[in-house]
Amino acid sequence: MSTAETAADVLSSVATLSKEDLLHDYRLGWESRHASLAGRKEVFMGKAKFGIFGDGKEVPQLAMARAFRAGDWRAGYYRDQTFMLAIGELTLQQYFAQLYAHADVEAEPSTAGRAMNGHFGTRHLDEDGNFKNLAESKNSSADISPTGGQMPRLVGLAYASKLFRQNPELHQFSQFSVNGNEVAFGTIGNASTSEGMFFEAINAAGVLQIPMLVSVWDDHYGISVPAEYQTTKQNISEILKGFQREGEGQDGFEIFRVRGWDYVALIDTYQRAAEVCRTQHVPVLIHVQEVTQPQGHSTSGSHERYKSKDRLSWEEEHDCLRKMREWLLQEGHASEEELTQIENEAKETVKVARTAAWSAFFNPIKEEATEVVALLNRLVKETGTENKLHELVEPLEHNPAPIRADLVRTVRRALRAVRGTRSAARRDLQNWLEQALAENSDRYNSYLFSQSEEAIGNIEEVKAEFAADAHQVDGREVLQACFDANFQRDPRIFAIGEDVGRIGDVNQAFAGLQEKFGELRVTDTGIRECTIVGQGIGAAMRGLRPITEIQYLDYLLYAIQILSDDVACLQYRTKGGQKAPLIVRTRGHRLEGIWHSGSPIQMILGAIRGMHLCVPRNMTQAAGFYNTLLRSDEPAIVIECLNGYRLKEQIPSNVGEFTLPLGQPETLKKGDDLTIVTYGSMCRIVLDAAKQLAEVGISVEVIDVQTLLPFDVDHVIADSLQRTNRVLFADEDVPGGGTAYMMQQVVDEQQAYRFLDSQPRCLAAQAHRPPYGSDGDYFSKPNAEDVFDTVYEMLQEADPKRFPAIY
């Protein structure tokens, strides 16, 4: 176990710092501390809704910042404000703008007011949505709140450095890396190391041997729960001893311990740790112990409720800024008067920044409120007082701190009160409301997806072409040819997953590609779905194009949290400041048994808004989607049909070039009596049923939606219902799952209820998972006979004479 304890060690790095450097750090530490103290007061005054702060961690973060270079990356948690200030990627005014939820990307560039305070990120994209030169900037991936959720992405950020270093084909992409010389810094609280994601990420980093430097801020608590309930032996570095490498050149971690109030030791530790990480590509863990948290966990309560008097006294004595002050005085680097002046100036600096941030946030809203009150008073004057409109105006007029919701709420209720009347003031108020709703839609609802030239909707469709003598092959061979062509086209593309490498995945779509393109391009991983996806997220943020495989759709549950909380909302929570065009490849639907026949579509649809969801019926369609996605900058999940790899298809002659647009259903069979809407493996079952229905005189139209996100952007299904007037939605999810989603999209969103002569019906699987065996599949999931009977019942209701009861 490496330590930073000896006087000889600790003096080596700090000796390179001048007095100006030392006092700069001290000043910055106090500016951050006063920002935390002021932030708490702002919450209690009602000017902000919630606060969580980085007090107590100032000195360790100052040391970390001194080891952080241009091109490096951070994946942190919500107490890293001092670090962000120290690397120059956060100003105090921006800090308070985030606390106030200022929905302006210029005022609050990390999240444009969309994330609560303490969630930081740098803007990696230009105004057109293209990557900036990330090798020349200090980069912070956008924070998320779920504890430990930063760790999977951290693996990917560090893994990208390994690829940039070891793959010569990537050396040309100098805007993303300087030959892999970048370190990925991660931060996490001691209690969050209890999360499975932490241990999975640590193990993955040790296996991969990547430049990942993790700092554990150990203040002994997780909110009110002390370390004895959190960590075996109450010491995360102690229980990770087995990861310590045995010597240079050996696999494993370097592990350092250092006290969070010891400025000199911290400077030395971070310098040495970062150098090992950067030059040797060895993962490093720094256990920063004896950290304090002067204001407790957050504004939601006081730590005096659960910390003993002795603990509170110890924390006061070991406050890192107090200890740094003592050291500066002891070593003669500054006088008492100099340090007191710095502390007072820091407090004033924070006050000025706070005032400026509040003014920039509140003044425009106050101006809007003044405008609204004037419009409302005009409306009262023109329409009279009998409608009690004046009762709405007065509260807004005397509200000392209105928010935009107050304005819009009042205007909507006012217009409700004067409905049916005509006046110029009413028209002006309607115009104001229309503009306000549009502006607030941009503030709060925009950038769920990319708006760049590489957005999905901007990828040109290229039709598949087939040679006249094209022969039939297994579906897996179509995918294999597609991946082969794309790997040749773009060296940034790589694939990782369980069994992807040597055997070419369990269904052979990558067969032979590792041998052809090398282990760095087609790579096996351990059984660790969460960090497989995280490895892809981080690499995609750094300009690479990962395909991350989840072997079966059922196992997506291991990764759904990080997909939902991280990549799916990345564009949104940064308002277009960051992107990660990750492709998650998986397979599902029909096979065998409870854990290999998954169709949890409802769960996926609800969790991954911000990603696309492709559900191709065969491997040619899947190839078309991969070709599109690998040219786009948006993330997606592609669910291949488990039972389709051995079915025969033709390979397009332009297998790596043809593209399929997303959100465009395909009509597989024309019909007149009823429309069946489905996707994936159900397409074959529905087409079988359609043949059987034709034998009894029923003509059905079969539509494959192809993608669920986006869904039928041109309303093809509504057009079909306008002719057939009846609809059946069929899939393999549980009742009320994917079928209910499709029905809502068609009947509600497309307003196709207008064309229906019968109740729309849904045909789904049973509420339980399918048992093992062919009979288990037949009696659990929709089959051709189920489709036949459901359609027949719908037609029987309309024409019982023509279609008499079967049973």
Automatic annotation (TrEMBL):
Keywords: Oxidoreductase, Thiamine pyrophosphate. The keyword S-adenosyl-L-methionine does not apply. It comes from the Bacteria. Its cofactor is thiamine diphosphate. Transmembrane segments: none annotated. CDD domains: TPP_E1_PDC_ADC_BCADC. GO terms for molecular function: oxidoreductase activity, acting on the aldehyde or oxo group of donors, disulfide as acceptor. Residues 473-647 form the Transketolase-like pyrimidine-binding domain. SMART domains: Transket_pyr. E1 component of the 2-oxoglutarate dehydrogenase (OGDH) complex which catalyzes the decarboxylation of 2-oxoglutarate, the first step in the conversion of 2-oxoglutarate to succinyl-CoA and CO(2). This is Transketolase. It comes from Hymenobacter perfusus. The lineage of its organism: Bacteria, Pseudomonadati, Bacteroidota, Cytophagia, Cytophagales.
